[in-house]
Amino acid sequence: MPKLEYFVPVNASLQTIWDVLLDRIEHPERYMQGIDSFEFVESTEDYAVREILIQGFPLRERITIDERLGQVRYALEDHPLFQGDVYNALIPPAHDDPKALPVVQFRMDWQPLNSEAQSAEAEGAPLLEASLKDAVHYVRDLAEHIEVKKNQANPI
How far apart (Å, rounded) are the C-alpha atoms in residues 77 and 86? Predict the structure, then answer.
């Protein structure tokens, strides 16, 4: 796929947003439609490998977390059609703007490996772009909902 990128500001704390991004790793079925099953097949201090079956289509990804940079990387492994990564990033608000909000950014950079992949890329690009936008909006909406609930439970 050509590089797809989408980002939105989020009216929630950095910690709340980060918690949602981490929850996406452990519970992909909450965030992506069409998940038939998933399992973690390897886990170390540095990464985890997750296998997902999405509408009968297998996907194996190596997941790495860089909390310092606010990034989660999903790198494709042993895929027959594509190679590449998907990044979920949390960008802190600008320090010089008191009204600035944190931003959630999703970036997908998959490259086709053969002509079959190029054909799939051409057919699936609009749907994939819409799915990426929906995923970012879902993370934003969930983080903002959690933040409202926290504030209601702990009023200032």
Answer: 12
Q: What is d(CA 60, CA 52) in angstroms, rounded to the nearest whole number?
A: 6
At residue 152, does pLDDT exceed 90? no
* pTM for the whole structure: 0.91
Query: What is the C-alpha to C-alpha distance for residues 89 and 74, in angstroms, rounded to an integer?
Result: 11
Q: Which residue has the higher pLDDT, 32 or 154?
A: 32
List pLDDT tens digits, range 92-124: 998 899 899 999 999 999 999 999 988 888 888
For 155, what's the count of Cα atoms within 13 Å in the CB-facing half-sphere? 1
Q: What is the 3-state secondary structure (H, E, C) of the chain?
A: CCCEEEEEECCCCHHHHHHHHHHHHHCHHHCCCCEEEEEEEEECCCCEEEEEEECCEEEEEEEEEECCCCEEEEEECCCCCEEEEEEEEEECCCCCCCCCCCEEEEEEEEEECCHHHHHHHHHHHHHHHHHHHHHHHHHHHHHHHHHHHHHHHCCC
Go through the domains of the chain in sequence order and give each one's CATH number: 4-150 (3.30.530.20)
Task: Say which residue the tokens 């490996």 belong to.
Answer: 113
